[in-house]
Amino acid sequence: MLKALIKKELSQLGSFYFFDSRKGRRRSRGAAAAYVLLFVFLFFTMAAMFLGLAHLLAEQLIPAELDWLYFAMMGLTAVMFGVIGSVFTTHTILYKAKDNEALLAMPIPPSKILFSRMIIVFGSSLLLVMAVWLPAMLCYAAEGASGWLPVILQILLMIMLAALVTVLNCALGWLVALISRRLRSKTAATVILSLVFLGAYYFFYFKIRDVLAYIISSLDKFEAAFRGWGWPLSQLGLGASGEVLPAIIFTLMTAGLFAIAYAVLSATLLRILTASNAGRKAVYREKRAAQSSVERALLGKEFRRLTGSATYLLNCGLGLLIMLAGAVLLIIKAETVRSQFPAILESIGLGGALTIIIPAAICFICSMDLFTTSTVSLEGKSIWILQSMPVEASKVLRAKVDMHLILNLLPSWVLFAAAAFVFRLPAADAVSGAALVFAFNLFIAEFGLMMNLLKPNLEWTNEAVPIKQGMPVMLTLFIGWITAGLSFGIGLALNAFLPAFAAVLIFAALFLVSGVVIGNWVAKRGAEIFSNL
């Protein structure tokens, strides 16, 4: 039974890469290989981010014979990255799957249902840990400090780090489940707790250079700290540097924590899944319902779907928070930014490129907000409700694009206005930059919806699958990064012949035309595809 449950979860997790749900058949070997290769490319892109950190620590700590401290710090980084990368979806994986009722109605022990889902959490945790730990192993070997025994222990400890991240993620998911039982809005509980943790993570991330400088200048203090309160991490570091006994100790500690977490979650799973909301009951009050247009009703439906899912909101709307926080930070630090940032650009030969850099950077942030890439898939097996209503499919799809634009345009324009104010951009530069931000958002919204129509996934039982792992999400994110980068790179090249605002307007026109063309396809061919899904 357990084997069948694990197989079911794994098949659903990787089904998109090998099965086309729209056509109802397996993908060709070439198409499946292309999707897998794209996933591998994205993984190595993520791992490359940590290669610089590992190199910086390795060249400082390994020559000082502090190999264990090097691995202890990289292990701590892997734990933090693993938790922040999976905490948004763990609660959904463990407690919010659509097949909960079907599984509980079968003679299956809840502990086996839980274990099959913890395997999925472990798998995602392992990928995130590998993105940090493999660069650490590579830099350690580059320093000539590796050997066959340390490599074997490092691989073992990487697996145990993933198990530790799984424990932490499951604990946070369990905490959210317990708290949300007392609240009317379970989405609010998940979002608030996740944002608190995310804020702490990014505070550390942006302070990483200061932290590293302090660590390097205070190695004695940190060595004492890791041997004290950070003793488990010291065992991790000693084991990864080649000592067998500390590796065994860390492995046993992690296995014990995993067993405790599994026992606690198993004992509470059934109660949490079957518990009614203990929060304040809604009181019915009779009131007159206001009549609204079809467009407004469809748009309201899209917003209710978004606010009703913490996984959807956090994974697709994180850029909104970044833009608003960035605008506030720019205003608060206006004098410092105005006096230092242009000098930094001047030192690298980009002194006159602010007009191009600012809107391109905002476009890059906007590419993180991918509401339309999963909005069709999230209809799931209930898509027939919209298809059977006397509503044109093009209006249903238009509402999905409108939600994306409403959510993204205001924060992006606020951030651009703050940047334009701080750097005192001329009127022509401000207008061209605002136009580029609008056109880019339109392009990404329409392109993401087109990808989701071409590659929908309506067979999911866990909404995290279409939101985080679907090909439309990865492809649109990738295209967004590339096009935002091109608007910067080619814009700089055009600036040699044209005024900066003219170069920006050229890209604004390109994005606008692309968005209109794709939007026309969505309204016609896309509506036909939607009606027949």
Task: Explain how this protein is built.
Helix content is 79%, strand content 1%. The protein is mainly alpha-helical. It folds into two domains: 226 residues, no CATH class; 234 residues, no CATH class. Helix 14 runs parallel beside helix 18 and helix 21 runs antiparallel to helix 22. It is built from 22 helices and two strands. Strands 1-2 form a two-stranded antiparallel sheet. The two termini are 33 Å apart.
What's this entry about, in short?
This protein is 79% helix and 1% strand. It has 533 residues and is an all-alpha fold.
Strand order of the largest sheet: 1-2
The helix/strand order is: HEEHHHHHHHHHHHHHHHHHHHHH
Describe the global form: globular
Q: Measured on Cα atoms, how large is the radius of gyration?
A: 25 Å
Distance between the terminal alpha carbons, to the nearest Å? 33 Å
Percent range for β-strand residues = under 5%
Number of strands: 2
Report helical residue fraction. Answer: over 70%
Query: How many domains would you count in the coordinates?
Result: 2
